[in-house]
Structures are given as structure tokens and as C-alpha cells.
């Protein structure tokens, strides 16, 4: 097996699409992470481009605002030499009443190969697979899943620990977070212990069925924790009155400098964008044990790996 960055690990995902991590095995996740490490070597070169997906057309179909995810996917596609088409709902026929199905079928009539979709509705990516023949990659669907974010989080964690026999706490707005769900599936598949922490009003009923521990006290979540992943408050998806104020939220659930001092081995992550002074104190965001920018860097490599591994799939064993 070659270890050259020009020739990523040979392997085959049993999925044709990346709709979420709920059905991905540990072996498939590890294959993506290993391939991403090799593509990361490409990104460290003076010329950060390979001809791997030359001739492949990828459409970025974004129905929700995005900065990091959209730019990361676009960079990944261009680094792989794919032909890239960017779609924004704000300037499209969607504002005239065109449905997701009709938009997708019109795009497919233009002979596209892959679609990266972000949509406010849970299940939008799954629905798209029933409308078109192209490979579909979920870039976030409502409060359901955000698989590539979880994969880049897993890659970032693996850069600091030899295995996933870890205690990871996910803190904040669990109820509205697609990042939390994908991370739960990925972390559990790789053997990590996962604790969820947040206000009762932001904790889904029955979430323990996913094999996680639930606490409503931040100190309990941080005790013995190796990695703390703070989540952005999804204010745009919330109804009023779920917590008294942002100030009180920070007092009870915000990670502060005193926590880093009390737990000297703790690493802090955040999927971004960070609300300084809410989920994390400003001093924590800038601390050397906050590995948030590492997550951003790993995002391009992970998305290159996902695109590479899915682009060659001609027959789906499972979706």
C-alpha cells in the first residue's frame, strides 16, 4: 500500500453517499481519516493541487448561509482539480418558488457528478438521493447531521491522542445541533466515552439512548474530560425562553480560563463561529489548548478525502 500523498490509501466505502455518520462503520471512518492525513500532505506543498478529480463536476448547493463549510468544500474541490459550480438559493429560481426536487433535476440535466448540499430541513440530503443519480454529500441538514464537521473534529482529536479511548464532553445547545449528533455517532463508533452537558431546555428527550452520559452541570462534564467541545448557541433555530440570558448561560455553561487552569490536560474545540463570552471566554478562544483553528485546517483535507473516496463509486451497497 502506497504512502505517497499523490496516491491516497486504497479502500472502498460501502456507502455511495455521505448523508450522515449514523450508519458509517469504524473502518469507514478510519479510512476517511487516513486518506485525509495524506491529502493534508498535499496542502503543505508549494503547489497544493492534484489532478485526482479532473473532469468531475461538483455542485455546491447551499440553501443556508455558510462561510467555513462552503469555502472549505470549494477549496477541497479545486485542490482536487474538479469543475466547481456554486449555487446560492438567494440568487436562484428558488426565490421564484422552484422546489428542491426541480432544482436538483435541472442541475442533473446539466450532467453533474456530485452534489454538496446544505439545507435547513432535516432529511434534505436523503431526499435528494431519490431525485438524482449524482453522489450526494450532506453539508448540514437542519438539526439532523453535519458529517464532514464531525470527521474533521475526529481528525483533529486524532492529531493529539494515539487512540479514541477518551472522554469527550459536548457542551451547549445539543437539541438544535447537527454537529453534536454526527460527533456522537463518530466518537462512539471509534470507542470514545461521550458526555453531553447543557441546560435541560436544550437537551433532547431520550438522547441517552445513543449511549451517551447526560449531565446538567459543567463541572461534572469537565471532570476527567480529555476534550471539551463547546457548541454554538443556535439562536436562529430556537424559540424564546429556553434560557434566561446569554450572560447567565456563560456563567453556568461557558468554558473559562479558570477551567483550563483547573484541568491542565484539557483540550477545547468549537465548530465555529464562536460567540466570544458566551460558549467560550475570549481568553479560552485564544489559548494554546484551544485547537479551533486546527479544526479549520483539517476541514479542507477531510473534505478532499470524502470527495476522493466517493467520486469513484459506481454501485451503492448501502446509502
For the record, give the distance between the C-alpha atoms at the N and C termini, rounded to a whole number.
Answer: 27 Å
Low-confidence segments, given as residue ranges, are 1-8, 313-319
**Main beta sheet: strand number and arrangement?**
5 strands, parallel
Give me the number of helical elements.
11
Strand order of the largest sheet: 7-6-5-8-9
Shape verdict: globular
Tell me the number of strands. Answer: 9
Radius of gyration, in angstroms, nearest whole number = 19 Å
Mean pLDDT across the residues is: 89
Structural class: alpha/beta
Tell me the fraction of residues in β-strands, as a range. Answer: 5-15%
Task: Give the arrangement of secondary structure elements.
Elements (H helix, E strand, L loop, with lengths): L25 H18 L13 E6 L5 H12 L3 E6 L11 H9 L5 E6 L4 H6 L5 E7 L5 H12 L8 E5 L6 H12 L3 E5 L15 E3 L2 H5 L4 E4 L15 H8 L3 H6 L4 E3 L12 H4 L6 H20 L8
Parallel strand pairs: 1-2, 1-3, 3-4, 5-6, 5-8, 6-7, 8-9
Helix pairs in contact: 1-5, 1-11, 2-11, 5-6, 5-11
Amino acid at each position: 500500500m502506497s504512502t505517497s500523498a499523490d496516491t491516497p490509501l486504497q479502500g472502498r466505502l460501502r456507502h455511495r453517499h455521505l448523508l450522515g455518520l449514523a450508519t458509517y462503520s469504524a473502518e469507514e471512518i478510519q479510512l476517511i481519516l487516513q486518506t485525509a492525513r495524506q491529502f493534508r500532505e498535499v496542502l503543505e506543498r508549494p503547489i497544493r493541487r492534484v489532478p485526482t478529480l479532473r473532469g468531475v463536476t461538483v455542485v455546491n448547493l447551499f440553501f443556508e448561509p455558510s462561510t467555513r463549510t462552503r469555502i472549505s468544500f470549494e477549496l477541497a474541490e479545486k485542490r482536487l482539480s474538479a469543475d466547481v459550480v456554486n449555487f446560492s438559493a438567494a440568487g436562484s429560481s428558488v426565490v421564484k418558488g422552484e422546489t428542491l426536487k426541480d432544482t436538483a433535476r435541472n442541475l442533473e440535466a446539466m450532467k453533474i457528478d456530485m452534489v454538496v448540499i446544505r439545507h435547513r430541513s432535516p432529511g434534505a440530503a436523503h431526499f435528494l438521493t431519490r431525485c438524482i443519480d449524482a453522489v450526494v454529500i450532506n453539508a448540514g441538514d437542519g438539526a439532523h447531521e453535519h458529517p464532514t464537521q464531525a470527521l474533521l473534529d475526529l481528525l483533529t482529536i486524532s492529531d493529539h491522542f494515539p487512540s479514541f479511548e477518551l472522554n469527550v464532553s459536548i457542551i451547549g445547545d445539543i437539541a438544535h445541533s447537527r454537529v453534536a449528533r454526527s460527533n456522537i455517532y463518530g466518537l462512539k463508533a471509534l470507542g470514545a466515552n461521550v458526555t453531553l452537558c447543557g441546560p435541560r431546555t436544550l437537551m433532547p428527550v431520550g438522547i441517552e439512548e445513543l449511549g451517551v452520559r447526560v449531565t446538567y452541570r459543567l463541572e461534572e462534564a469537565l471532570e476527567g474530560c480529555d476534550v471539551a467541545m463547546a457548541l454554538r448557541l443556535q439562536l436562529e433555530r430556537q424559540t424564546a425562553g429556553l434560557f434566561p440570558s446569554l450572560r447567565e448561560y456563560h456563567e453556568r455553561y461557558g468554558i473559562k480560563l479558570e477551567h483550563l487552569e483547573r484541568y491542565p490536560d484539557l483540550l477545547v474545540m468549537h465548530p465555529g463561529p464562536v460567540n466570544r463570552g458566551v460558549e467560550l471566554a475570549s481568553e479560552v478562544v485564544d489559548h494554546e489548548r484551544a485547537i479551533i483553528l486546527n479544526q479549520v485546517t483539517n476541514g479542507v483535507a477531510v473534505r478532499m478525502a470524502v470527495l476522493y473516496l466517493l467520486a469513484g463509486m459506481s454501485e451503492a451497497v448501502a446509502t
